[in-house]
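To: structure subgroup
Subject: Chain for Friday's discussion

All,

I'm putting the inputs and outputs inline so they're searchable in the archive.
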Amino acid sequence: MNSRKSLDRVPSWVPVDGHALRHAGVHFDAVRIGGFLGEDVAYRLMEYTDFQAGPIVRQATGERYLYFLLPPRTAAAYAWPAPARALSRSGGALAFVGIPALRGTTWPLDWRSRPTLEDPFVRPELLHEMVVCAVR
């Protein structure tokens, strides 16, 4: 049985309804991976963590990116193999990530895996390991 706890309070960066753009590097860093590779990494990560991976946002249009949300100021600590791309405040570049609400209509964004009390973020070291394995 999955014993994940629902969030007692929604993180401040999750909108109440619809979706909103959030600046990467403020509340979270993100790693963006598109298409089949992104889905493969998400599945590997979720299977390894017994489906308690932390927050993963899925985009249903365009490149069909998946955004793996990491603790702030952690993405730059790893050399992400292409085509994974770290989004954070480092390097002087601005990056925004669309964040869906936890309920209601959020198309074209949805949660592949939601943040929980136990897993408010994806573990960066584990994600890096899964990405490296997936691109080999």
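Points worth raising on Friday:
The longest helix spans residues 35-48.
The two ends are 33 Å apart (CA to CA).

D.
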